[in-house]
Amino acid sequence: MIRVGLTGGIGAGKSTVARTLVDRGAYIIDADVIAREVVAPGTDGLAQLVAAFGDDILAADGSLDRAALAAKAFVDDEQRKKLNAITHPLVGARAFELLEAAPDDAVVVQDIPLLVENGSAPFFHLVVIVHADEEDRVARLTGQRGMPEADARARIKAQASEADRRAVADVWLDNSGAPDDLAALAHHLWDERLVPYERNVRSRTCARRPENLVDHRPEWSLQATRLSNRLRLLGAEKIVGVTHVGPTASAGERAADVLDFEVQLAPDVDPADLDDALADGGFPALTPGLHANADPGRAVTIRLTTPS
């Protein structure tokens, strides 16, 4: 199994990618669907919201009046935190239930609008960002959804910036063209990366690695930061440091497109203690203390070191 975090700004086309991946066989966990489910009539979530914000957030049929709730919950930070304290744990618990129910060979796509904002990128094998320029997004929101332009621009400005999204993106899908173009990109992602990645993780197989030298790429540093965060999370208290080393860490050098990491382990930690966590996270062992990538789209070498 691999977990794919899917996100993008409002109007960027994330739903098109999600539908395409589901059609190809992805197991979807949609945060927006869950957020509605946990506050449906008769749920504990709805009861908590009524207790916190009053009976007037209910519609005549007893369902949640989202506009009425928004009028109360988004007036200031204190009220927004009150709302989040109720809904976020419920959404998280339900998402975990769905994840636990996924098949062992699933490509799990978690559609999370605020993935960047909530800092959850390191928890995924891959993060896929769907992007479109602001003017394209405004045109879609006003033309297809009937949203007033001022509201559309305000919603866009309130979300993560393009730079923030690029910082966590393992895959960047540009939706500047037609919906069919975006769907074609999603099909290619499924065939060329997601399916072989999941198969490699399940079989603990390292992907093929490039050998040809290429000019230094500025994105190597950003990619190394993302992977360092992922490795620290996988190792938890067993890892005390992750350092990007080797040719790709040196500006200006030609190198094979392989990111090398030296991972410093805590005292008394046996490198074998990390084999399962790293393999499940996408980095199976080549030899004792040496791991590589299962992801066919990002070559990595990880050497585990212990204090002398």
From TrEMBL:
The keyword Protease belongs to this UniProt entry's keyword annotation? no
Q: Which reaction does it catalyse?
A: 3'-dephospho-CoA + ATP = ADP + CoA + H(+)
What EC numbers are recorded for this enzyme? 2.7.1.24
Binding of ATP occurs at 11-16
CDD domains per the record? DPCK
Pathway noted in the entry: Cofactor biosynthesis; coenzyme A biosynthesis; CoA from (R)-pantothenate: step 5/5
Indicate whether ATP-binding appears among the record's keywords.
yes
Q: Which PROSITE patterns has this protein been placed in?
A: DPCK (PS51219)
Q: Which GO terms describe its molecular function?
A: dephospho-CoA kinase activity
Q: Which UniProt keywords apply?
A: ATP-binding, Coenzyme A biosynthesis, Cytoplasm, Kinase, Nucleotide-binding, Transferase
Where does this polypeptide localize?
A: Cytoplasm
What Pfam families does the entry give?
CoaE, GrpB
UniProt cross-references to InterPro entries, sorted A to Z = Depp_CoAkinase, GrpB/CoaE, NT_sf, P-loop_NTPase
**What task does this protein carry out?**
Catalyzes the phosphorylation of the 3'-hydroxyl group of dephosphocoenzyme A to form coenzyme A.
Q: Describe the family membership recorded for this protein in Swiss-Prot or TrEMBL.
A: In the C-terminal section; belongs to the UPF0157 (GrpB) family. Belongs to the CoaE family.
Official protein name in the record: Dephospho-CoA kinase
